[in-house]
Design brief:
The protein is α+β, with helices and mostly antiparallel strands. It is about 40% helix and about 10% strand. The chain binds adenosine-5'-diphosphate, 2-acetamido-2-deoxy-1-O-phosphono-alpha-D-glucopyranose and magnesium ion.
C-alpha cells in the first residue's frame, strides 16, 4: 500500500444518510482499520462504522465481502421476528454503485456498517455474566449459521487454525531469524517446542466441519449498555468453515484472564475457573443440541490449544520483524506471546478440574 488509506474519500462512496460531519479512527484491531463516521441526518446525527480490509492479510477481500454479505443476510433474517431484531445482526451499507463494498483508486477495499448504538465491546471480561453472555452469543451465531444454504463459504485465510502449520511457520521464522531476535526469545522458543505434541489433536479428532467465526475474542461481541446482554457478534472477516472448538477455544483465551493480551506483568495472567464455567454454561445453552460427544470432551483442551496457537503466531511475527500484527511498542509481539504462554500454563494447571466441570455440565 502506498501511503495511508484515504478514509475520507472512501466515506464519500457509501450511501450514508447525509453529509459526513466527523470521521475518526475507532477500536484497536491488529489487522484492519476501523473508523467511526458521523453523518448529518434529518433529525439527529447518524453513525456508521467504516472499515478498510487489510489485503496483505486477506488476499481476496471480495471473497471476504461475499461471505459477509451472505452471513449478515442470513443472521438478519433469523433475527427479524425477535425483539430488538434490528440490532442483532450487522447491516451493511451499500456503496453508491450498488455493491456492498467499495474498491478505491489504490485498489483498497472498504465496507460500512450501520453503527449499533447503546452497546459496546470490552477488552477484558469483568464478570461471570459477561462471559456467559459472550459464549451464548457466539454459540448462537454458530447455531444460526448451521442452516446457511450452500455453497460452502470461502476460506478467507486458508489453514487459519491449522496449528501444526502455524508451528511449522514458527520453525521457519526461527531458522530465518529475519530480525535477529531469536536469541532474545529463547525461553519462548523452548516453551513452544516443548508443546509441539499438542498441535495436531483437534485436526486428528475427526470433528465435524461447521461454519465458525474463528476470531471469537471477547471484544468481538457488543454488550448492551443497559442490560449487559450480548446484542450482536461482530468482526466477520474470518467467518468460514471450521471447527466449533476453534471458537470455544478463543473464548477461553480472551475471556477467562483478567489481564490484557499485551500485559507485561505476567503475575496478572491467570485462567479464572468461574469464568471458564460461565463460558461452558453459556456456550452449551446455545449449541447444546448439536455439539457431539467428541467436541464436548475437547472443550477445555481447545482453550489451551488456541491460546498456544495465538502465542506461537505472536512469537513467529516477533521473529519475522512484526510484519503481520500491528505493534505499538518495542517487543509488543513478544509481550503478547508471553501472556499467551503464561495462560497456557495456567490452563495446564487446572485442566483436570476443567475437564471434570465440562463432564458434569455437558455429560
Ligand atoms: P477489528 O477487526 O479491527 O477488531 P471490528 O470489526 O472488531 O474490527 O471493529 C472494531 C471495533 O469497532 C469493535 O471492537 C467495536 O467496538 C466497534 N464496532 C464494529 N462494528 C460495529 C457496529 N456495527 N456497531 C457498533 N460498534 C462497532
Ligand atoms: C487478530 O485484528 P483482530 O484483533 O480482530 C487476528 C486473530 C488473532 C487476534 C489476536 C485475521 O484479530 O486471528 O486471534 O488478532 N486476526 C487475523 O488478538 O489474523
Ligand atoms: Mg474485532
Amino acid at each position: 500500500m502506498s501511503g495511508r488509506p484515504d478514509a475520507d474519500a472512501a466515506a464519500s462512496q457509501f450511501e450514508f444518510s447525509g453529509k459526513v460531519l466527523d470521521l475518526t479512527p475507532h477500536g484497536g484491531g491488529h489487522i484492519n482499520d476501523t473508523f467511526l463516521v458521523t453523518c448529518q441526518a434529518q433529525d439527529a446525527p447518524v453513525r456508521y462504522i467504516l472499515q478498510h480490509i487489510n489485503r496483505h492479510v486477506f488476499h481476496d477481500p471480495i471473497a471476504v465481502m461475499q461471505n459477509v454479505e451472505r452471513v449478515t443476510k442470513h443472521l438478519a433474517a433469523q433475527a427479524a421476528g425477535e425483539p430488538d431484531g434490528a440490532r442483532r445482526a450487522l447491516r451493511l451499507i451499500p456503496a453508491r454503485d450498488g455493491r456492498n463494498w467499495h474498491v478505491d483508486a489504490q485498489g483498497e477495499t472498504w465496507r460500512a456498517y450501520r453503527f449499533i448504538e447503546n452497546a459496546r465491546t470490552y477488552e477484558t471480561a469483568t464478570s461471570r455474566d459477561q462471559a456467559f453472555q459472550a459464549a451464548r452469543a457466539f454459540g448462537r451465531f454458530q447455531q444460526q449459521l448451521s442452516s446457511l444454504p450452500p455453497p460452502r463459504l470461502h476460506e478467507t485465510i486458508p489453514d487459519f487454525h491449522d496449528t501444526p502449520k502455524r508451528f511449522a511457520a514458527l520453525e521457519e521464522a526461527i531458522t530465518a531469524d529475519a530480525a535477529g531476535r531469536a536469541a532474545l526469545a529463547k525461553p519462548e522458543i523452548d516453551f513452544a517446542r516443548s508443546r509441539q505434541f499438542i498441535t495436531g489433536v483437534l485436526l486428528e479428532a475427526d470433528l465435524p466441519e461447521r461454519i465458525t467465526h474463528n476470531d471469537t475474542k471477547f471484544n468481538n461481541v457488543l454488550l448492551d449498555d443497559k442490560t449487559g446482554e450480548a446484542v450482536c457478534v461482530i468482526d466477520l472477516d474470518t467467518v468460514m468453515p471450521g471447527l466449533a472448538l476453534y471458537d470455544f477455544g478463543d473464548m477461553v483465551r480472551t475471556t477467562t484472564s483478567p489481564a490484557a493480551e499485551d500485559e507485561r506483568d505476567l503475575s496478572k495472567v491467570t485462567m479464572q475457573f468461574p469464568m471458564f464455567e460461565a463460558l461452558v454454561r453459556g456456550y452449551l445453552e446455545s449449541v447444546g443440541a448439536f455439539l457431539t460427544v467428541p467436541e464436548r470432551k475437547l472443550l477445555a483442551f481447545s482453550g489451551k490449544l488456541i491460546t498456544f496457537e495465538i502465542g506461537i503466531r505472536f512469537l513467529a511475527d516477533y521473529l519475522a520483524g512484526d510484519t503481520y500484527f500491528k505493534v505499538h511498542r518495542k517487543g509488543h509481539n513478544l509481550d503478547r506471546c508471553r501472556t499467551q504462554f503464561r495462560l497456557v500454563e495456567s490452563i495446564e494447571q487446572q485442566e483436570d478440574e476443567m475437564n471434570r466441570l465440562v463432564e458434569s455440565v455437558a455429560g
